[in-house]
Write a structure and sequence with these properties.
Chain lengths: 111, 118
């Protein structure tokens, strides 16, 4: 069971907006640690999507945005496209484990 | 272009030792960053195993620290994972990755599937 909690799946029609939540606790997100998001197409390695809560690495479309508040973070995808179908993972640091932690992942389906 | 490539046996017997190697090209391990291992279980979950920084210091997730060793071979620009006493619960895809000064894993290998079976 992951320390960070994500919904197992979300779905939306092309062009719509979907949001993925990532809920942590007082030893990780709630302690002020940053959240990163990764996108993983099945059969490939995860790829950085959002860093430091809100930053998009070069090449990431601005349809993807991140936010953080309290012990939770969120990834939003606007203007959903078929190519956005993938698994998405949040990541943070946990001071009780003294290391990196991941969410359980959310599968995004484009209807 | 930094590239990482995992190698090692895809099948390990229960109670034996898992050994994987990550070969890095396009960047010297001793020049910077941290380098480590992450695994992904069949159910999708990701688990950070541990990593080491280029200038010393190795860190492991507490649940695996008694069974895991990560080491570096600068002459070959490789680093390795050694996990003892494996069980079926250790079956996963194992990734090597580069970590920046924070917790961001910005470069990943393609992953290698490890099965634990007699």
């Amino acid at each position: 069971q992951s320390v960070l909690t994500q919904p197992p799946s979300v779905s939306g029609a092309p062009g719509q907006k979907v949001s993925i939540s990532c809920t942590g606790g007082t030893s990780n997100i709630g302690a002020g640690y940053d959240v990163n998001w990764y996108r993983q197409v099945p059969g490939t390695a995860p790829q950085l999507l959002i860093s430091y809560n809100i930053n998009r690495p070069a090449g990431v479309p601005d349809r993807f945005s991140g936010s953080k508040s309290g012990s939770s973070a969120s990834l939003a995808i606007t203007g959903l496209q078929a190519e956005d179908e993938a698994n998405y993972y949040c990541q943070s640091y946990d001071n009780s484990l003294s290391g990196s932690i991941f969410g359980g992942g959310t599968k995004v389906t484009v209807l | 272009q930094v590239q990482l490539q995992e190698s090692g046996p895809g099948l390990v017997r229960p109670s034996e030792t898992l050994s994987l190697t990550c070969t890095v090209s396009g960047y010297s391990l001793t020049s910077g960053f941290s380098w480590g291992w992450i695994r992904q279980f069949p159910g999708r979950g990701l688990e950070w195993i541990g990593d080491f920084s280029h200038n010393g210091g190795t860190y492991y997730t507490p649940s695996l620290s008694s069974r895991v060793t990560i080491s570096m071979d600068p002459s070959r620009n490789q680093f390795s994972l050694r996990m003892t006493s494996v069980t079926a619960a250790d079956a996963a895809v194992y990734y090597c990755a580069r970590r920046d000064g924070s917790i961001i894993f910005d470069r990943w290998g393609q992953g290698t599937l490890v099965t634990v079976s007699s």
